[in-house]
């Protein structure tokens, strides 16, 4: 019995060691000032931009977002906002047109997903543009968003990910979700760019060269992990994804535990699916084509969700104390590396009483994450919608 327990603990220690080392390296890299993107300015002309808001229901939230976005300090005839409307009310669509947005109404379907919605719009021949930006229904941006984003394209960027930040932190769960966003920005966007890799995409606040975007979107039909599929297609072509830390997109964080579980089901299913579907291609891309970016992305799918890494480290510290002192020592080192990696990005948040109070919700978040992982198969063939508030 002791041998079996030791073997299980050793395997878990090895998995957690990989997680901790990866996060630690890129977290340290993210502490350095972001390197300026290189490139020569190709033009002084405003870029023609298509801005897409794929929306399922969310009538009140999308009205706030569109009204806000139309305040852009950018040449009015050089950007078009299109709401891809899935089950929106007629009065909502009428109001958005009054605000200045166009509306593309989707046909009724019980097999909906974000990729299909965007492809439907692209098939309608929306016109000629230089780039395309994807937003979520709840996203808010500053009035300089378009001009700041398009500056990157004037210097030759093909894909740019903006920095998403929280627009709400009303309880411990939304505070923890805010921490998760900050950590992801620091490690998987800024840290990746600092070491020469592409930034990860995150589903909204993403900008693409228009013709490239149309090409990589062809045939895409995924219920979970739209941004991951998009990222893999780009990286396989060796397209570099840049990160604009200075361009903010305000995004609503989850403040309800059931919504948290549904959202994480999608994420976990997508992570497992893309790992299985792309692991051997990642080895090929790395060994034969020298495509480090693609391989790095697929290897990221091996990483456990951060809250699960923390939870398993805590469990292992207790168990290995009774099983094997060497494993206990290894787990202690791994735990310290993991804590350092995750605290570096959010250290300023943890200096407040409210910030520290959110840590008390970690055990429940760990339990919810385990449940979401076990039941993630539910996200394989149905669209699990994440509702938003109008606060």
Provide keyphrases for this structure:
single chain, 391 residues, alpha/beta, Spore Coat Polysaccharide Biosynthesis Protein SpsA, Chain A, 14 helices
Overall description:
- The chain is of the alpha/beta class.
- The chain folds into 2 domains: 113 residues, no CATH class; 222 residues, Spore Coat Polysaccharide Biosynthesis Protein SpsA, Chain A, CATH 3.90.550.
- Helix content is 54%, strand content 13%.
- The chain has 14 helices and 8 strands.
- The protein has an 8-stranded mixed beta sheet with strand order 3-2-1-4-7-6-8-5, sandwiched between helices.
- Helix 1 crosses helix 6.
- It is globular, with a radius of gyration of 22 Å.
- It starts with a helix and ends in a 17-residue tail after the last helix.
Number of helices: 14
Q: How many extended strands?
A: 8
Order of helices and strands: HEHEHEHEEHEHEHHEHHHHHH
CATH class of the largest domain: Alpha Beta
Can you summarize the main beta sheet?
8 strands, mixed
State the CATH superfamily name of the largest domain: Spore Coat Polysaccharide Biosynthesis Protein SpsA, Chain A
Number of domains: 2
Could you name the ranges where pLDDT drops below 50 across 5 or more consecutive residues?
none
């Amino acid at each position: 019995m002791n041998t079996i327990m030791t073997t299980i603990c050793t395997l878990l220690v090895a998995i957690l060691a990989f997680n901790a080392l990866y996060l630690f390296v890129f977290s340290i890299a993210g502490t350095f000032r972001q390197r300026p993107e290189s490139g020569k300015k190709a033009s002084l002309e405003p870029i023609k931009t298509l801005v897409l808001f794929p929306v399922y229901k969310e009538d009140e939230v999308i009205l706030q977002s569109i009204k806000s976005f139309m305040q852009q300090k950018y040449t009015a005839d050089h950007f078009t906002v299109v709401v891809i409307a899935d089950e929106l009310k007629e009065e909502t669509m009428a109001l958005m047109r009054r605000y200045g947005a166009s509306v593309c109404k989707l046909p009724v379907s019980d097999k909906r997903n974000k990729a299909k919605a965007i492809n439907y719009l692209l098939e309608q021949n929306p016109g000629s543009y230089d780039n395309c930006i994807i937003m979520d229904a709840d996203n808010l941006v500053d009035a300089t968003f378009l001009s700041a984003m398009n500056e990157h394209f004037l210097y030759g960027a093909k894909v740019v990910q903006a920095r998403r930040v929280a627009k709400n932190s009303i309880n411990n769960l939304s505070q923890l979700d805010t921490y998760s966003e900050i950590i992801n920005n620091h490690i998987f966007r800024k840290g990746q760019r600092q070491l020469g890799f592409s930034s990860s995409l995150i589903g909204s606040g993403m900008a693409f060269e228009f013709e490239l975007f149309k090409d990589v979107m062809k045939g895409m039909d995924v219920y979970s992990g739209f941004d991951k599929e998009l990222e893999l297609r780009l990286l396989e072509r060796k397209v570099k994804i840049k990160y604009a830390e200075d361009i903010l997109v305000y995004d609503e964080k989850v403040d309800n535990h059931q919504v948290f579980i549904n959202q994480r089901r999608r994420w976990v299913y997508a992570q497992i699916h893309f790992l299985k579907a792309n692991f051997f291609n990642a080895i090929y891309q790395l060994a034969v084509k020298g495509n480090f970016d693609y391989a790095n992305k697929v290897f990221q799918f091996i990483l456990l969700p951060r809250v699960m890494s923390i939870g398993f480290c805590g469990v292992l510290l207790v168990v290995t104390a009774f099983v094997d002192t060497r494993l206990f020592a290894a787990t202690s080192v791994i735990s310290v590396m993991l804590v350092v990696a995750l605290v570096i990005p959010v250290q300023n948040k943890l200096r407040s009483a409210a910030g520290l109070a959110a840590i008390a919700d970690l055990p429940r978040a760990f339990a919810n994450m385990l449940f979401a992982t076990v039941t993630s198969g539910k996200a394989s063939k149905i669209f699990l919608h994440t509702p938003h508030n109008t606060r």
